[in-house]
Amino acid sequence: MIKPEAVAAGHSGKIIDLILSNGFTIVALKYTRLSHEEAGTFYAVHKERPFYGELVEYMAGGPIIAAILEKSNAVEDFRKLIGATDPADAAEGTIRKQFAESKAKNAVHGSDSDENASIEGAFFFSTREQH
Ligand code: ADP
Ligand code: MG
Questions:
Q1: Cβ < 5 A residues, ion ligand 2
Q2: Which of 18, 21, 54, 95 has its CA 20 to 30 A from that of 75?
């Protein structure tokens, strides 16, 4: 997912270009917006964390771009490409290093396991939208 502040700042094209040039292919792609309820569901694993309310507000605060990406070792390689959660800790050349505003507003989301990638992909896309 390209998060609301990165979409609003006009970084979407550059971020998608980095994703493609790093060997990922697009299986599904959508410009959309999460309701508060949907953002709460998407981030339900963080329900008990102190930043949950702030995270839901932020993620419902503007349009996002959702994608399903394909590559061998995709989850691990994508997390390497996006960099650490906090851009202050993210390696040079990573998407978060280049485009994140802060630990909270960090430009992109990446799934943390193959299982969650399937769940999150199905959250946004019907099978008809995946190619
Ligand atoms: P990641 O997105 O790197 O997998 P997490 O799963 O730990 O990171 O957190 C989910 C999202 O919640 C982060 O990408 C960020 O937007 C937000 N977040 C994480 N930690 C904090 C924090 N301490 N304060 C505010 N927002 C946070
Ligand atoms: Mg996470």
A1: 112
A2: 54
